Amino acid sequence: MGDMEMNTDLLVIGGGPGGYGAAFRAADLGFDVVMVDQLPRPGGGCLHRGCIPSKTFLHLAELILDARGAKRMGLGFAEPHLDLSAMRAWKERVIDKVADGLETLAKRRGILLVQGQARFDSSNSVRLEGAEYSRIRFKQGIIATGSRPLEIPGVPLMPGGRIMDSAAALMLPDIPQSLLVVGGGYVGLELGSVYGAFGSRVTLVEREDRLLTQVDADLVQPMQHRLSKLMTDILVGVELTEMQENDEGVDVRFTLAGKSERRRFDRVLVAIGRIPNSDDLGLEHTGISLDTRGYIKIDDRQRTTDHHLFAVGDVAGGVMLAHKATREGRVAAEVIAGQKSGFDARAIPAVVYTDPQISWCGLTEREAKAGDIPYVVQKFPWKYSGRAQTMGMTDGFTKLLTEPQSGRILGVGICGRNAEGLISEAALAIEMGATAEDLALTVHPHPTLSETEAEAAEIFQGSPTHMLPASK
Asked: Is 446 an annotated catalytic residue?
């Protein structure tokens, strides 16, 4: 550790999307900014261990699946040869290129990047470990330390072991003949898809009675049907009772429908959720309050219970999405600058990058029913989309929820190819208070998947173009 101290206007702890979003906005507003992170380069877990590496491998998996599907269209490819070393190198090149860009943006803005572990010793200062500076004193601070994978109690995750978390799985150590994925959330489904496409016999188990419990069941159904052909088993309502690693593999015992089963897998991926990185920050030396799960309590302006400190992203709870963290970081910087800013998004888009993809924003049917909120729902099946037909991707649909009287769009869900790109129009419509009529009257190019959103809106008008009205 160095013995130098420094002073700054704003200290940002954490270099992920929430952290650099806050730091960049604050620097643009004229603040002297220092950003501290344990990683040597900015980007956080999202860039180096999560979002970007997973999407790199998901893209390769999609290419493999598309090549297989092209055979029924008259285009044949040989079975792919997987060069794991080259694939890992490609992933690292992608990460490096994005990190280079973030470093350049920080440098151009005059932001000082410091590698090290920061722990508070007061509301206005932190001590650093593993850094050239020993202490940083600041006027305001933003905590953006993110989250980490939740472990199964009593099941240690050893470096290089057969039992992996998501970060270890994305190192792509090998392609095991058999892989158990524990967890039916988006991480388990995405990484299970990757390994399934790459050749592993994947068994996925989920404790709840269905996959993606936060998503409407009808959106999940086409994805689960497709994944059932890619994976060996998808089992729900499973209770794990034992997991033991040995030289031959991992022996797992679980109960399903009241019966106990024992199976052996070459590797196990544990993807059962995430917990906030709030437990090693020295928060006891500040006025910050935590909730019962360890998340930092904040208000709608990202302020903690300590008036010197703000918190953004996963460590502050709510939906754990990188784009939400970035927006929260910008809000925190603007509030510190005295601007009238707050986090009041009506629609936060979410995407599951399986094949087919699932995306949604705004109100879900599950939330509407739980809150006794009146709604009307209409769906446009993609089997009526000319563009989906050309791609052989007809098992998806676009779904709109509207307010019964006004027709205002409350929520949108999409299951199908490129749902990640389609959902942004829906988010804009919800944020602007648009009605189904507004969406229907917006001219969409043909043939595209985007016009399925207009077609779903036309159903509310009683006259969709590419399917018969319900009365016919």
From this structure: yes
Superfamily holding 163-272: FAD/NAD(P)-binding domain (3.50.50.60)
* pTM given for the model: 0.95
**Amino acid 159: pLDDT:** 87
What pLDDT is stored for residue 445 in this prediction? 97
- The label of the residue with tokens 């009506």 reads 346
Is residue 10 within a helix (H) or strand (E), and if so which, with residue range? strand 4-13
* pLDDT given for residue 195 in this prediction: 98
Domain ranges of the chain: 4-148+275-336, 163-272, 350-460
Paired residues of 178 in beta bridges: 201
Asked if domains 163-272 and 350-460 share a fold, the reply is: no
- How is 49-89 classified by DSSP, letter by letter? HSHHHHHHHHHHHHHHHHHHHGGGGT---PPPPP-HHHHHH
Query: pLDDT-derived band of residue 4, with 50, 70 and 90 as boundaries?
Result: confident
Domain with residues 4-148+275-336, CATH architecture: 3-Layer(bba) Sandwich (3.50)
Catalytic position from the list 48, 307, 446, 466: 446
Residue 377 in this model has a pLDDT that exceeds 90: yes
